[in-house]
Amino acid sequence: MSALVKCSRIALGHRYPDLATVRITPDGEFGATDGKRLLLEQTTARFPWEENILVRATDLYRVRLREFKDCATFDLGVRDDWACFDFGDCRFFTKQDIGHYPELHRVLPSENQIRTRLTLDPKDVFEKASRRIAGPQGP
Coil, strand, or helix at residue 85? Predict the structure, then answer.
């Protein structure tokens, strides 16, 4: 569920509202862009259709999607050009967006194009973060 909420937020930042869509793939990947930022989130969900679906982020937020962000799961059904989201207490139908969504993975550099890699030791990160939160130590 959190992937759907996060992708909707990113897509809603698009300067062209008609392009504010969330892409959902059959293998459970949720994707969205606002033209500057890109969010791809792989989930464990698997859907029984073969094509990617596009859903308008504005439609998802009209149904107050943010109120369902604490739902652990939701059901999603697709038929013809309609998508149905079932959040338990609420069932929401929306027409799928027709069009071609950009291949989001093409924007990301391939492994051999990466020139710099940063590896942080979790212990160092935790120590610095905890010092910042705790504030200066006494004498």
Answer: strand
